[in-house]
Amino acid sequence: MVSKEDERPVAMALLGVEHEASGERRRLSLSGLPIALAVALSLGLSLSAGGWCVRAALASTPRRHAARQPRHKAPPPPEITLTPMIGAGGVATTMAPVGLSLEYPVMAQDLGAGACPAPALVTELQQLGSPPLALAGVSQDMTVPSGALSSPSDSWEAATLFTLPASFWGQLHCLLGEAHDPLTVGLNARTGQLAWATQMVTDAQSAATNGLDFSLGNEPDLYGLPNYAALDKPQADEEALAVSTYLQVAQQLQPALGGAPVIGPELARPAHWQHELPRVIAQLHEQTVGVHMYPLSTCATPKAVTISGLLSAQAADTPRSLAWVVADASAAQVPAIISEANSASCGGVSGVSDSPAAAVWAVRFVLSALKTGFHEVRFHFSGGPYDPFIVRGEEVLSRPLDSALVALNQWLPVGSSLRTLSVRGLVVTAVAQPAGTSLLILDNEHPRAQPVVLRGVRSATIERLGPARAGVLSAELVSPTDRIKLTIAPNSVLAVSPSP
Question: What sections of 81-144 are H helices per DSSP?
Fold first, then answer.
């Protein structure tokens, strides 16, 4: 048995933590750090504080002779001085940065068979910060209210519609009463009719407990039109014709809303309607402009969706290509959001979309969206590999993506501001939080580890997301000086919160 007095030296030996001072070898204690070697290794960090040095290393690994010094000495690591309001004056967060978008059948399944859903689902939504919850997706244009189809289906179109269970809205009310999420309800604009929309609005109003808005149709830019591409000369006004048709249908459904807020137009490929988007915003009086975005696509070529592709700068920075959507929304004095997103369209790819790399991508994607001017990103659930979590009976099974969504809503509470710092070798986001606290998000997009020195902090909480291990791994660091050196593992994201 190891005594309490011997426990710390044994643990520090396993961690490979040593400090040479005045010819005497001493052990370093890091407040709050787990003593298990596996946890230290999983953080992927090399840390030093002042003269203290901390490295995660196997005690049994034999020492090797030092390599010859390179001819060209490496430059010193970049330094960041933390101040209480380091992120002040940047982009303001006015909404929860992360929301959820669920297909109607997925939501119906998650609600279960009881009068109220599993307590674990309530807990999951609360851990996420009670974010906006949207009932949307492709099923939006295939869903009809309970009792709307009284006779057997006599057509393919009717047979493929999804009828909501009679218990759906009551169960949803029970869920929202506990979780307090705002609700967005998608209405069927492709196969629907005014009577259906009116019933859906009434039922949704009975379920919502913390705010309610509606979207009219899902991805109307993909609704069928004549195959002009087959003609010798495609119609020059195809975009305008598609928009006019959609607006006609949407405006026929608007009386059902009774003046309730509208979000949309939920475009799959916003560039298809780039010239007409201002007209859509104006005629539908949209309170929020919502568009969809997926950095990768598995619809035709699943093998093209890879972890390396998901971790690429291109996948992270995709929201920047829609800066014009933000500009159109700003001109109309309304916010823009990415109302449906995930790693790869058509449900994602197993082994990629449900891997820890998806969590790293999500942090990068949301930060890029916020800095572009979008106010929120809603992550889609389709019953496929990219769902952040799945409900199985009374249990909620979290996937790696879920941990990133929880972290983002905790790191970026409403009222925060964030801005990018120029730091060599890293993408650094400084956050000023409404409580007067600060946060640094350090992103190493490179295949090699990157060092950085933090000044002005004696103790801090470090949280890490990496591509090899699921979940947020955390540690508490205490320095005798105001200097902490971190070496950030490849393709990893670290959040640094100075302790009071």
Answer: 104-111, 119-127
**Burial classification of residue 430, based on how many CB atoms lie within 10 Å of its CB (0-12 exposed, 13-18 middle, 19 or more buried):** buried
Structure tokens at 391: 């409900």
- 343-364 confidence digits (pLDDT tens): 999 999 999 999 999 999 999 9
- Would you call 350 helix, strand, or coil by DSSP? coil
- DSSP 3-state of 499: coil
Q: Is residue 318 one of the residues assigned to a domain? A: yes
132 lies in some domain: yes
Burial of 110 (0-12, 13-18, 19+ CB in 10 A): buried
Cα separation, 339 vs 288, in Å, equals 10
Helices 168-179 & 104-111 angle (0-180, nearest 10): 80
- Domain containing 454 equals 4-60+80-89+418-498
Residue 285 shares a structural domain with residue 267: yes
Say if residue 148 is in the same domain as residue 122: yes
Q: How far is CA 430 from CA 8, 50, 398, 464, in A?
A: 35, 23, 28, 16
Per-residue pLDDT band for 69 (boundaries 50, 70, 90) equals low
The C-alpha atoms of residue 102 and residue 345 are separated, in whole angstroms, by 14
